[in-house]
Amino acid sequence: MSRVAVVTGGIGGLGTAMCKALAEQGRRPVAVDFHGLKPEVVDKWKADRKAEGLDIPVYLGDVTNFESCAEVCKKIEAEVGPIEILVNNAGITRDALFHKMTQEQWDQVIKTNLYSVFNMTKQVYEGMTARGWGRIVNISSVNGLKGQAGQTNYSATKAAIYGFNKALAQECIKKGVTVNSISPGYIGTEMVRAIREDVLQKIIATIPAGRLGEPSEIARTVAFLAAEDAGFITGEDITVNGGLYYH
Ligand code: CAA
Q1: Kind of pairing between the strands at 28-34 and 4-8
Q2: Mean pLDDT of the chain
């Protein structure tokens, strides 16, 4: 069914692959991304998708801001349709060892990675439960599961997603809404490529698969959890990390 599927961080490395996988599944993907992006970046992204035969609308806002999320979601619902699938994928890193971490680095990551989950889910939850169908997929991380030196801020937000999901899953499964997460390992996106080369090589050496993951390997898991017949899976997390760490 061509249900509207909103992907935050939708024009980034993982988000783009998610939009494509959802389109392939017959969904109507909508990318939500940061209002600070340059218009030419958004235009190029849209043109690249067009060249692939995809017409994916992009809405800009600020996921750290509740009012901005309300505005964006209202617009999408008026212009595209009711939001039935939400992928909370927007996330940032501000890595630093704890003794060097500033309050700003802490706040930025908590607001972008965690407040965003509340701010966006709040906008779509009532509609999903009233209609009796919904899929919420939150993107966590292997580093929420295992912890990562240099990421006390990031690991805290990604671990928080497990608690949020398990609590909300119990509230809404009877109303046809599922809440799950995916914990990607190290995937070949800009975020991971920003790690200092020597540090990154050491990390790759610890991944049993011996390589970084592909964005499409995360995106297919999003489509799996968003499927029509995934309605009995809720409160669950799926790790996709090349064997780096298990539940
Ligand atoms: N465990 C324990 N100690 C560590 C460590 C680790 N993994 N990494 C660094 N240290 C220690 C070093 O041994 C060193 O100690 P000494 O001074 O006693 O030798 C000290 O910390 C300083 O190390 P650096 O020179 O590397 O410090 P830095 O301040 O330049 O950099 C850092 C610190 C930014 C955290 C850097 O080590 C780094 O980038 N690490 C990788 C963090 C990481 O994995 N981020 C993931 C980003 S991608 C992502 O988040 C997506 C996802 O979901 C997976």
Answers
A1: parallel
A2: 98
pLDDT, tens digit, 9 for 90 and up, residues 151-183:
999 999 999 999 999 999 999 999 999 999 999
Rounded CA separation 124/86 (Å): 8
Alpha helices in 194-242 (DSSP H): 197-205, 215-226
- Please state the φ and ψ torsions of residue 234, each to the nearest 5 degrees: -155, 150
| Closest CA relative to residue 196, chosen from 99, 93, 122, 108 | 93
- Residue 162 falls in the annotated catalytic set: no
**Closest Cα to atom 13 of ligand 1:** 149
Contact yes or no for 178/135 (Cβ under 8 A): yes
The 3 state secondary structure assigned to 124-188 is HHHHHHHHCCEEEEEECCHHHHHCCCCCHHHHHHHHHHHHHHHHHHHHHHHHCEEEEEEEECCEC
Within 6 A (CB) of ligand 1 lie 93, 95-97, 100, 141-143, 148-151, 154, 184-186, 191-192, 195-196, 199, 203
For residue 126, which amino acid is it?
E
Structure tokens at 179: 């809440």
From the CA of 141, give the closest atom in ligand 1. 53
